[in-house]
Structure formats: structure tokens, C-alpha cells
Amino acid sequence: MSTTESYPRPLKITIVGAGIGGLTAAAALRIEGHEIFETPSMNKEIGASITLADNALRVLNYLGFDIEHLKAGDYLGVAWFDSKGGEDWNLLVTKEEPVRAFEDFDAQFTALFALVDGPVHLWQIRSLLPLPTWINGRAALIGDAAHATFPTIGQGAAMSIEDGVTIACLLPLGTTREQIPGRLYTYQTLRKERGEFVVRESLEQVTIPSKRGLYSRSPEMQVFIVNHDAVRVARENLAVHVTI
């Protein structure tokens, strides 16, 4: 065996649309020793506020991000102001505008707009319906591409982070091209049900009155979501069920 054949060869992996999940995957795959080509969608981001619970922070710790180093300055407070410019996501419109948008609906539904008093807030937020599959050959969906969700329980970014590190842990150095489809099937097995659970609960806790605020009232749901260790779960599954 030659010297070059004595060492495992890295995979060459392309990440398209490197958002939170893609950046996590890139960082974790580099830890595994692979070569990464990424097409970022966040290269002009200057920062935004998101919620990261313990399940996401465990992954960041694994990647070497010390939260103590993230402090850019002394906290002074939060100020709300009217931002101008760009596309508005929360508009005030007259009630006639949504009436026109729903004019093809049955009268028993459009009659509800007569009950509206004053202007209407027009804004958009979307939740992705479950997809039949997240994988195809050596390609896989992660993050919002697989499970876009309402921000109701503050787990959208965390699910993307878990996706990214799960794929990386299932593709350790030494994985061959031929093994990738099987590893991605394992990724889907580990992630799809969990991601879709968060999507479903985030939607239902907005749209079903009896479920509003359920996450904050359910210790069992909090434990299921927040106590999850994506790195440990992926590695244990790889060791038990997958032949390297």
C-alpha cells in the first residue's frame, strides 16, 4: 500500500445557501477533515436576535464557540424604532384589501371581514408542509429548506444547527462516496420526525386556541426538545447501526 493510500481521503462537499444550518454543517464537516465548498447567503448579514436554547448551545460548544467570546460590548438595553427602507413585513392596510384578496371565497367566510374594526395588519410568515423526503442520492436538505417553521417556540435556528452537525457526525473522515446515500438515509431517520414535530407544534400553538402557550406549560415537551444532544445521538447511531 502506498503512503497516500494509508490515509483516509476527505470528501469534497458542496453546501448551497449557507444559512445557519449550512454554516454549522460547514464548520462541523471541517472538523471531520473534509473539503468544503459553500455558497453563502449570509455574507452580508450584520446581526440579528435569535433564540438559542441548550440543544443549540451544545452544538456551538462542540464547534468551539465559547459564548464568553461573543460579547461585543457592555449591554445597555433595547430600543424599538420605526425602520424605513427595504421591504416592509408588517403593513397597515384597509380591510377592503384583504376582502379583494379573498373575493373568491364563500360569502360565509368573506362576511367575517365586516366584523373588522379599523385597519388590518398585513404580514407574512410561513410554515413548510412535511416533505416526502429530505434526501436524494448524495444530496440532502437541511434547515429551513427541510422544515421552515413559525418562531412560536424559538427552535427554528436550533433545528437547523442540529441538522448541520448531525450530517457531519455521520460522515467522519474515511467515509466513501458509495457510503454517503446510506449515511444520509440515517440522517433523515434521525432528523425528519424531530424537525417536523417542531414545525407542527409551532403552527398548532398559534392556530389552535387550546394549545397556545403549551410549550411554556409542558415540561415534557421542553425536556424532549432542549435536552437533545445532536452530536451524541448521531455518533451513537453511527457506532451501533452503521459500518464505517
TrEMBL record:
<protein>
    <recommendedName>
        <fullName>FAD-binding domain-containing protein</fullName>
    </recommendedName>
</protein>
<dbReference type="GO" id="GO:0071949">
    <property type="term" value="F:FAD binding"/>
</dbReference>
<keyword id="KW-0560">Oxidoreductase</keyword>
<dbReference type="InterPro" id="IPR002938">
    <property type="entry name" value="FAD-bd"/>
</dbReference>
<dbReference type="InterPro" id="IPR036188">
    <property type="entry name" value="FAD/NAD-bd_sf"/>
</dbReference>
<keyword id="KW-0285">Flavoprotein</keyword>
<dbReference type="GO" id="GO:0004497">
    <property type="term" value="F:monooxygenase activity"/>
</dbReference>
<dbReference type="InterPro" id="IPR050493">
    <property type="entry name" value="FAD-dep_Monooxygenase_BioMet"/>
</dbReference>
<feature type="domain" description="FAD-binding">
    <location>
        <begin position="133"/>
        <end position="201"/>
    </location>
</feature>
<keyword id="KW-0274">FAD</keyword>
<keyword id="KW-0503">Monooxygenase</keyword>
<comment type="similarity">
    <text>Belongs to the paxM FAD-dependent monooxygenase family.</text>
</comment>
<dbReference type="Pfam" id="PF01494">
    <property type="entry name" value="FAD_binding_3"/>
</dbReference>
